[in-house]
Design goal:
By secondary structure, the protein is mainly alpha-helical. 44% of the residues lie in helices and 0% in strands.
């Protein structure tokens, strides 16, 4: 596990940058924008509190929101998971899934129907 924020390496950006093809409104380095989003996610800081080494917070948030709205984050996550599995020598997609369930007791004074746990029968 990595402690603190780490910017993308060149090899990481080579893969991710090819997946972030997007029409840009202004001349910004998308690598810096992506690193700024990683910084916010890792440190939990507010958008407005981004250090001045990154692009303006409004531009970073604009791209974050566009990527979220268009589903680019989900596609990026899917492709990176597939690539990581292939690198490990496994199949691109999992062939087996395990779902666990657990019953939760409610307070005795609650008498309305809450549904059924699939594991209890």
């Amino acid at each position: 596990m990595v402690d603190g924020y780490q910017p993308l390496t060149d090899s990481q950006w080579q893969v991710i940058g090819s997946l972030l093809l997007v029409q840009r409104r202004r001349r910004l380095c998308l690598r810096q924008v992506f690193n700024a989003v990683l910084y916010v996610c890792r440190t939990g800081c507010q958008w407005r509190a981004l250090p001045p080494t990154f692009p303006a917070w409004t531009a970073v948030y604009y791209y974050f929101y566009q990527w979220q709205r268009t589903g680019r984050w989900q596609r990026l996550n899917h492709v990176l998971n597939v690539l990581d599995r292939l690198r490990e020598g496994r199949q691109a997609l999992p062939s087996l899934a395990c779902v666990d369930s657990q019953s939760v007791r409610l307070a005795p004074r609650i008498f309305e129907h809450r549904g059924l746990d699939g594991a209890s029968a």
